[in-house]
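Summary for the steering committee. The consortium agreed at its last meeting that each partner would contribute one worked example illustrating the joint modelling workflow. Our contribution is presented below. We chose a case with several input lines so that the handling of multiple components could be demonstrated. No manual editing was applied between input and output; the record is shown as generated.
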Amino acid sequence: MQIPYTLQFINLLAALLLLIAFAMLAQRRILSLINLFAWQGALLALSTFIVAYSTNQHHLYYSAGLTLLLKVLLLPYLLHRLINRLNVRWDVETLINIPTTMLVGIALVIFSFNLAAPISQLAEGITRGLIGIALASVLLSLLMMLTRRKAVSQVVAFLALENGLFFAATSATQGMPLVVELGIALDVLVATFIFGIFFFQIRETFDSLDITHMEKLKDD
Amino acid sequence: MMTDYDLLFAILFQLAQLLLVVLLAPLLTGWVNQCQAWLQNRSGAGVLQPYRVLRKLFHKDAVIAHNASPLFRVTPYIVFGCMWLAAAIIPIIAVDLPFSQAADVIALVGVFALARVFISLAAMDIGTAFGSLGARREMLVSFLAEPALLMVLFTASMISHSTQLPRIVDTLAHHQFVLYPSLAFAALAFVIVLLAENARIPVDNPSTHLELTMIHEAMILEYSARHLALIEWASSLKLFAYISIGIALFIPHGIAEVGNWAGLPLAIALLLLKLMLAGAALAVLETVMAKMRIFRAPEFLGTAFLLAVLGLLIHFLLGA
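What follows is the complete predicted structure of the assembly.
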């Protein structure tokens, strides 16, 4: 049985998406983390574009364009500016060491592949094998949020998690209605702004972006 | 049914490949070194330099330590033989060679392991500190690299339903073109394994004798003259064999079939082109990367294992 080339290409992009999720998990530097996030957005835009082309749904072209504009250009630019102003270009501290995190990541991938197998049987779309990968990248981003100590990398993890969800939406249901997508995009943008303000507040209060300081908030 | 003529052709092809590999291997090493020299703004010693070094070493008298056992003397021949055998098994210019039926990919990894065991034993045989240090480090690196290599080969085997390299090449090269995401992961993992196993830069530096960093060079410090020449030649063969495995798994297009004389010139031309590109890419990789601390090597090779396992998982999920 020969699979159409568009689907093969989407499969390849999905695999690359998973690879980038792992690369982010292993990354020690904030600057490279943001660049990886931009690459993830670019892959997402490309895969959305191909789904739009192969299923002939015009509103997906808009959402691909929106992804490109927001997640490849605007958000990385904002994050770059943020880390320049905060002067935290280099340090990332992980709670667990990186090889252990990677092993936990592999376990998560196996778990989500197993979880997605019955769902994929039900789905009828052209891209049903991809739900597992989307779920895995969501869980990997969640793992990254848990294992990072600094606020900036947690926010990048949050944005990557949203990328995973978006990929799940395009691959499983071939795209949400445009209104919903616009709403989510706006939410993410606003969230980034609010996080930016939070960073300055946190740093002003604790002289550091290390969120373990926040555990000491006790009235004594 | 194989006729006598077919068998004769197959043996001729096999001999041609054996000769070609053993003669070309130093040239590949010379080409990689030359590319590196260009990238570092040096004029370099020329691509023929490894041949000159080999000739010089073969003309010298061997010096052997007083307390060397026979193991120390036979190791260079065993290592050279293993690498040459490995190069005979891999389909380099043609598939379905008589030798390739003898061993599958798992046995191929075993052949590499055999050579490694002997060279490590010989390094410890003399009893110098450097020898045992190098042998231990070699074992550390290789025990991490070997599972990753096996996983890479398993991914390719799962796709083609066979652990025989000729079958794998046949499935990937001579059927309809399909994109394999799992092979992309396997290729990345394979590059890392290739760098580690051939003592290239992020793990080891082949052109240094600094005691704190050397791995491969520390093991062969006691060798001289013809023994050293054989070991250097074996290292070239090993690099050649690894790059050939990479070509067979990831860009196998153009490898001829046995008895297809018309396809042979094209196969050799394509092989040379691929080797040139791979050598240049290796030189670029080595130039842009820095040598990492020995304690970071497990993490580096762990990444290779992770990538290979991911490739296997993705093969199961996507079926491609």
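The longest helix of chain A spans residues 58-86. The CA atoms of residues 19 and 137 of chain A lie 9 Å apart.
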